[in-house]
Specification:
With 235 residues, this protein is α+β, with helices and mostly antiparallel strands. It is 35% helix and 17% strand.
């Protein structure tokens, strides 16, 4: 068994190294199991036929600390890569230390590369709204506060924007959540990759306290509610 002091020091050093997401007390979430079950009955709007979409596609989403967002979408069949990074600001401020001060235009975000022949944009949005984060919170997510933790879809084209807009309207009309969805729809200018130590963070630090408390439960709910969407390599 680890010595308590040694364990404390190890966790402290890891938090310094990783520039850890906040570890304050949780603020509560509207994404309850009841909301997830109800939301599963609301399908995203019909998209363009997949035969009109050639090759791998990209989607940039923000929804709180990018560690958990990355880990959720890495589980999915048809997703070939997920990168943690920043979106919404300039190259000059696209680094973790600066973004963490909360005075840039950046949000912690992820860039998803996916095959629309295997998983649709709409299905990715469904996971985003029902599993990956609480879309009703404004400039915060779980224990983290600040505009860098806002909920946002950085759309790459008018179709992504329209499908997301219509889906949000459907979820709000059905009162899936206890509060209206606060997700911003913002045109993507550029996505900036975060520092190496943020990439695949959960795979490398599965016992990190923040991960255990806030992110592993999301993965468990994903596997329980959407088993057919899980990649075999993630099983």
């Amino acid at each position: 068994m680890s010595h308590p002091y040694r364990l404390f020091v190890s966790l402290y050093l890891l938090s310094v190294l990783a520039g850890a997401c906040s570890t304050t007390q949780p603020l509560g979430s509207s994404t309850t199991d009841t909301a997830i079950v109800a939301g599963m009955k609301i399908d995203p709007p019909i998209e363009a036929p997949t035969d009109r979409v050639k090759g791998a596609q990209k989607l940039v989403l923000a929804g709180g600390c990018f560690w958990g967002m990355e880990a959720v979408f890495e589980q999915l069949r048809g997703v070939s890569g997920v990168v943690a990074g920043f979106a919404g600001g300039t190259a000059a401020t696209a680094n973790y230390d600066t973004v963490s001060r909360g005075n840039t235009s950046h949000a912690e975000a992820i860039e998803i590369t996916y095959d629309p022949q295997q998983i649709s944009y709409g299905k990715l949005l469904k996971i985003y709204f029902l599993i990956a984060h609480d879309p009703t919170q404004i400039d915060r997510q779980e224990p983290d506060r600040g505009t860098q933790y806002r909920s946002a879809i950085f759309f790459a084209n008018p179709e992504q924007q329209q499908v997301a807009t219509d889906y949000i309207d459907k979820l709000n009309t059905a009162h899936i959540f206890s509060q209206p969805i606060a997700t911003q729809l913002v045109p993507l200018t550029k996505f900036y990759t975060a520092e190496d130590y943020h990439q695949n963070f959960i795979d490398r630090h599965p016992n990190y306290p923040y991960i255990v408390q806030y992110d592993l439960p999301k993965i468990a709910r994903l596997r329980q509610q959407f088993p057919t969407l899980i990649s075999k390599s993630s099983s």
